[in-house]
Amino acid sequence: MLKRQFIEAMVAEDVGRGDLFTRISESKAIRAYILAKSDGVFGGREYLEAFEKMYNLHIEWAIEDGEAFSKGDRLMDIYGPSKIILSLERSLLDVALHASSIATLTNKYVKAIEGTGVKLLDTRKTRPLLREFEKYAVRCGGGLNHRMGLDDCLMLKDTHLKTIDDLDSFMVEVRQKIPFTSKVEIECETFEMVQRAMKAGADIVMCDNMSLDETRKVVAFRNENYPHILLEASGNVTLETILEIAETGVDAISSGSIIHQANWIDLSMKVE
After folding, report:
1. Which of 26, 183, 209, 250 would be a feasible disulfide site paired with 233, CB 3.0-4.6 Å?
2. pLDDT tens sequence across 203-236
3. DSSP string of 34-92?
4. Crossing angle for the helix pair 3-15 and 82-112, nearest 10 degrees?
5. Which residues, at least 6 apart from 108, have a Cβ–Cβ distance to it below 8 Å?
6. How far apart (Å, rounded) are the C-alpha atoms in residues 42 and 76?
């Protein structure tokens, strides 16, 4: 969804048929600001700048996407008519809160594997109609996006594989029908499935819910026989386990929890 459409829908949801406060108040030029009431990593600036243009506001920034902030920091000053700023207050805060909360948790995972060379990826476990926004928030936290949808990478999961009788012949047909630049990833739960997937010509192999020992075995097999194939680990990834997984030698680790387990931080708007 385009930023403008996303923002218009968000504001329409909150304002409804009209902010009742605007009926009884006179509009005046004010300065508001967003205050951090907890520590975090910021996300949401791209969207807040879109608000700024759409509603003729002026924002003076004290922070960039991806920068850390501390409790008590003043993140931005917002100038404009009081009726507009007050009507947009919740929408502005929700954008900053939602994006910054995901960015904050993502950054913890990124720091946990710092120095390993392993990339942290998100998944398609996003809230309906919020995928573009939530994956943007992951990037703010230092993570990388996995595929945005079914159209930019062919991923054969266990459910797909149940419908394929001959993986080798299927992959020949795949290469004739999908775009030349599209990659094929195959989800594997066992070492035997990894061998089949690599032989069939996968570009990426996912080690799904494998033990650390089995993942190391896959890495060694890849390195010896198919060094061009990328390895992704997924399943039961937590802040406590992610470093051990990274040290197996995979190229990337994917986790849906960096989005769906992100707890909201605390930001507040004040008016001077």
Report:
1. 250
2. 999 999 999 999 999 999 999 999 999 999 999 8
3. EEESS-EE---HHHHHHHHHHTT-EEEES--TT-EE-TT-EEEEEEEEHHHHHHHHHHH
4. 120
5. 239
6. 11
With the C-alpha atoms ordered 213, 215, 220, 225, is the resulting torsion angle positive or negative? positive
Q: Is the dihedral of CA 225, 227, 230, 233 positive or negative?
A: positive
Q: What are 189-204's pLDDT values in tens digits?
A: 999 999 999 999 999 9
Please give the distance of CA 226 from its chain centroid, rounded to a whole number: 30
Token pair of 30 as six digits: 């004010």
Q: Which two tokens stand for residue 102?
A: 């995901």
Round the CA-based radius of gyration of the chain to a whole number and report it: 23
Residues identified as active-site:
90, 125, 157, 187, 208
pLDDT digits (tens, 9 = 90+) for 63-73: 999 999 999 99
Q: How far apart are CA 134 and CA 202, in angstroms?
A: 28
144: which DSSP letter? Answer: B
**What gap in Å lies between CA 171 and CA 200, rounded to an integer?**
6
8 φ, ψ (degrees, to nearest 5): -60, -40
